[in-house]
């Protein structure tokens, strides 16, 4: 049976400068070592009702008539609905596309979505906006903690680059729906719910539901897949499962590879056996991801942190070999995104 992933659990709801510094250091170590971090959800930053409300809305949206969803099909701007098998995250290893459907909300402007919305959820737009606002606030908080933990001068370096008032960004709130194994008669062992990939942006915040297995990360040492429990030991009695935060490619690039962007995927858990007690793949699975991106025009200039400057990637074949801070062309966040 696969060993579960070792991912640190951090409570960022610390008050006082000293406690905050401690949390910031832990967060950076987790981002360097694992690229994934559980943020304990005691309901202070994102309350239970907000998370539950978002999942209820997600079910409502995916249950909407097909024509409503089709009328909002995903556009070049990465906003809208993607149908079952539309996306293939790991084309080299997948026979068919991902067994999932998704709906991407881009940033709202003046309180309004900038994309077609299925009429079924039109009355719920304020709720969606409020939920993305909570995610946005938490994204800023994590960016500030990373700045403190990396001893960046000023510590607001990453946070400033994410401020909405400074312009539009590729930030996306994504609702995901994965059908249960039982409703798919043709699934083969190579079929996955979401193929192996790393995320593009700065950080991703992932919300999952208790009991719903599927997410795995690629371990660094022996390159095996390790399942990621929804509620790791110590969080079982929290009001909501922890929020899983991971470092995306942009932030890894920006920090010269110091912060790790980790490959992950979503699978059909093997029938009958359960790698994680209390989790199965027999129900439809829902998850919600908030992909943070800096403002598109933000230049990804050298990070003013001694630790980042001194870091040399271990992988000699890496294109980041030698600290490129002094040599490489400064990309903007949008240029980095479009290069993907
Ligand atoms: O659904 C999940 O657990 C993960 C989804 C994911 O990795 C993604 O959408 O990038
Ligand atoms: Fe992902």
From TrEMBL:
<keyword id="KW-0408">Iron</keyword>
<dbReference type="InterPro" id="IPR005123">
    <property type="entry name" value="Oxoglu/Fe-dep_dioxygenase_dom"/>
</dbReference>
<dbReference type="GO" id="GO:0016491">
    <property type="term" value="F:oxidoreductase activity"/>
</dbReference>
<dbReference type="Pfam" id="PF03171">
    <property type="entry name" value="2OG-FeII_Oxy"/>
</dbReference>
<feature type="region of interest" description="Disordered">
    <location>
        <begin position="313"/>
        <end position="340"/>
    </location>
</feature>
<dbReference type="GO" id="GO:0046872">
    <property type="term" value="F:metal ion binding"/>
</dbReference>
<dbReference type="Pfam" id="PF14226">
    <property type="entry name" value="DIOX_N"/>
</dbReference>
<dbReference type="GO" id="GO:0044283">
    <property type="term" value="P:small molecule biosynthetic process"/>
</dbReference>
<dbReference type="InterPro" id="IPR044861">
    <property type="entry name" value="IPNS-like_FE2OG_OXY"/>
</dbReference>
<feature type="compositionally biased region" description="Basic and acidic residues">
    <location>
        <begin position="324"/>
        <end position="340"/>
    </location>
</feature>
<comment type="similarity">
    <text>Belongs to the iron/ascorbate-dependent oxidoreductase family.</text>
</comment>
<dbReference type="InterPro" id="IPR027443">
    <property type="entry name" value="IPNS-like_sf"/>
</dbReference>
<dbReference type="InterPro" id="IPR026992">
    <property type="entry name" value="DIOX_N"/>
</dbReference>
<protein>
    <recommendedName>
        <fullName>Fe2OG dioxygenase domain-containing protein</fullName>
    </recommendedName>
</protein>
<feature type="domain" description="Fe2OG dioxygenase">
    <location>
        <begin position="169"/>
        <end position="294"/>
    </location>
</feature>
<keyword id="KW-0560">Oxidoreductase</keyword>
<keyword id="KW-0479">Metal-binding</keyword>
């Amino acid at each position: 049976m696969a060993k579960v992933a070792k991912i640190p659990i951090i409570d960022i709801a610390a008050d006082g400068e000293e406690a905050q510094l401690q949390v910031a250091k832990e967060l950076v170590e987790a981002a360097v070592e694992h690229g994934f971090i559980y943020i304990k959800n005691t309901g202070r930053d994102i309350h239970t009702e907000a998370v539950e409300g978002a999942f209820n809305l997600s079910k409502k949206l995916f249950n909407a008539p097909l024509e409503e969803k089709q009328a909002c099909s995903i556009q070049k701007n990465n906003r809208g609905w993607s149908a079952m098998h539309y996306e293939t995250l790991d084309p080299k290893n997948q026979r068919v596309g991902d067994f999932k459907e998704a709906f991407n909300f881009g940033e709202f402007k003046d309180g309004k979505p900038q994309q077609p919305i299925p009429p079924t959820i039109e009355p719920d737009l304020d709720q969606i906006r409020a939920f993305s606002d909570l995610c946005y606030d938490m994204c800023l908080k994590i960016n500030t903690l990373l700045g403190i933990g990396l001893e960046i001068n000023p510590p607001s370096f990453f946070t400033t680059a994410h401020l909405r008032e400074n312009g539009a960004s590729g930030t996306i709130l994504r609702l995901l729906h994965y059908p249960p194994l039982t409703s798919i008669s043709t699934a083969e062992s190579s079929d996955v719910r979401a193929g192996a990939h790393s995320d593009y942006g700065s950080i991703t915040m992932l919300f999952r539901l208790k009991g719903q297995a599927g997410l795995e990360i690629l371990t660094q040492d022996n390159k095996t897949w390790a399942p990621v429990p929804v509620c790791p030991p110590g969080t079982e009695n929290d009001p909501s499962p922890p929020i899983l935060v991971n470092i995306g490619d942009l932030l890894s690039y920006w920090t010269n590879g110091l912060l790790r962007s980790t490959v992950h995927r979503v699978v059909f858990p093997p029938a009958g056996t359960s790698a994680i007690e209390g989790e199965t793949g027999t129900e439809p699975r829902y998850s919600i991801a908030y992909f943070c991106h800096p403002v598109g025009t933000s230049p990804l200039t050298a990070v003013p942190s001694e630790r980042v400057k001194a870091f040399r990637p271990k992988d000699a074949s890496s294109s980041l070999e030698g600290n490129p801070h002094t040599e490489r062309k400064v990309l903007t966040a949008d240029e980095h995104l479009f290069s993907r």
